[in-house]
Specification:
The protein is α+β, with helices and mostly antiparallel strands. It has one domain (about 1-70): Alpha-Beta Plaits (2-Layer Sandwich). Helix content is about 25%, strand content about 25%. It has two helices and four strands, in the order βαββαβ. The protein has helices at about 10-20, 50-60, and strands at about 1-5, 25-30, 35-45, 65-70. A four-stranded antiparallel sheet has the order 2-3-1-4, with helices on one face. A hairpin with a 6-residue loop joins β2 and β3 (about 35-45). α1 (about 10-20) runs antiparallel to α2. The chain is globular and about 50 Å long. The mean pLDDT is about 95.
């Protein structure tokens, strides 16, 4: 899971969808210090896509925050299906 904070969120989202073929969700936030509203991007990629994602993000905004987190399980379209027990 990757969270990206940038002033160029729309351009980065387009780059992710066009170049990596992954979906992106906008989360709306506000900086605690600045009070400035921002679109925060959330996307899920596999280990092979993470470096390509970095290239997309930082080729658009060198000042972006790029936060990665390992996820245990992702269920949904394009990922695992829910198991029925």
């Amino acid at each position: 899971m990757v969270i990206i904070i940038s002033d160029r969120s729309d351009s980065i989202a387009k780059g992710i969808m066009d170049k990596i073929k992954r979906g992106v969700t906008f989360l709306y936030g506000r900086g605690a210090f600045s009070g400035k509203r921002k679109k925060v991007l959330l996307t899920i990629v596999n280990n092979y896509q993470i470096k390509r994602l970095e290239e997309v993000v930082f080729s658009i905004d060198l000042d972006a925050f790029f936060i990665t987190d390992s996820t245990f399980n992702v269920i949904g379209k394009g990922f695992s299906r829910r198991k029925m027990y």
